[in-house]
Specification:
Length: about 325
């Protein structure tokens, strides 16, 4: 029975019939999931991890459990964030497939530039300090950008042995070229960061409406198991919850946009309600910033440091707020 409760433990999880998920708790910044699809001696890897050490450890774990994983023929990158593609060089020889928009975005923040940013971020005020703190556990010093060798637009059908695998581009949403990896015969989908399971989504690219549409597309599919880009394995309920968050934040942001608030004012003004329990609630800062760009129809320059500064403030507020809440509860 597929609908079993999945344990959110580090390592490889057998979903059945040649499909595995590799999970990295606690699923917060940079701690991403990957997947393996196997039929006979044919293999497809969904995403690599944030650095070489983590990716190497994952590939060794896969090889110990799954003989066919000794040779990965195909790698799919669901999107361009480094926690889904910086380990690509360790799967050299595989065909690396991504949407065209994902491949273009990979060039925008190559690992060497990201390494430089993390190394010097401490000097960039509170936002920079948060960048340094979040990404210090990872080592980007020796990562070589390894690009897709095959790109597509829209949809691409692949074969892994006899299994059909559908790549469905749903971006721009979280990033510019988000792609779902659907295995219809096994009723499984790997969503990349279109789903953070019980974690707060972050709309770097938008429009957020595209992300809500992507959730609806998944909810319309005949699937049992959903492997998110971060967090525990789930099912359609996890996708419905994410859609609920995105719609709620869209509605609340719109009201404040119409009142003439700035994006930052709006982000701090919106009550998170039950969503405050999701990890990394501070990401609402980025999503509201993107929503305001969506509403105004004007693209804004991508400048992460001020956004991280606001997220640092929000983290401080939330830590303070949750103390207050527990005091009230306890009294
Ligand atoms: Zn990610």
């Amino acid at each position: 029975m597929r609908a079993a409760r999945w344990r959110f433990a580090k390592g490889l999880h057998d979903i059945g019939n040649g499909i595995w998920a590799y999970l990295q708790p606690d699923g917060s910044w940079g701690w991403s999931n990957a997947g393996l699809i196997v039929d006979g001696d044919r293999t497809l890897l969904v995403d690599t991890l944030f650095d070489l050490k983590l990716t190497r450890e994952m590939l060794e774990t896969m090889r110990r459990s799954v003989a066919a994983a000794a040779h990965i023929q195909t790698l799919v990158n669901t999107h361009a964030n480094g926690d889904h593609c910086y380990g690509n060089e360790l799967v050299a020889g595989a065909e690396i497939v991504a949407s065209e928009a994902t491949a273009e975005q990979m060039n925008e923040l190559p690992p060497a530039a990201f390494h430089q940013l993390v190394q010097t971020a401490g000097k960039l005020g509170r936002g920079g300090e948060l960048i340094a703190e979040l990404f210090r556990p990872f080592d980007f010093s020796d990562v070589t950008l390894t690009m897709p060798t095959r790109v597509f637009h829209g949809e691409l059908r692949l074969k892994v042995g006899d299994k059909d695998v559908r790549l469905i581009e749903v971006g721009p949403a979280h990033t510019k070229g988000d792609t779902l990896v659907h295995v219809p015969g096994d009723r499984v989908i790997f969503t990349g960061d279109i789903l953070f399971s019980e974690g707060t989504p972050i709309a770097w690219a938008g429009p957020v409406q595209n992300w809500i549409a992507a959730c609806n597309k998944i909810l319309d599919m005949d699937i049992d198991v959903v492997v998110p880009g971060h967090g525990s394995i789930t099912d359609k309920a996890g996708v419905a919850a994410m859609r609920g968050y995105l719609q709620y934040v869209t509605d609340e942001a719109r009201r404040r946009f119409d009142k003439g608030m700035t994006a930052t004012e709006a982000a701090f003004d919106i009550a998170l309600g039950p969503y405050v329990k999701w990890g990394n609630a501070e990401r609402i800062v980025v999503t509201v910033d993107t929503l305001f760009a969506d509403f105004s129809g004007e693209p804004r320059p991508f400048n992460p440091v001020p956004l991280f500064e606001q997220m640092a403030k929000m983290r401080d507020n939330l830590a303070h707020g949750s103390d207050e809440m527990s005091t009230v509860k306890g009294s």
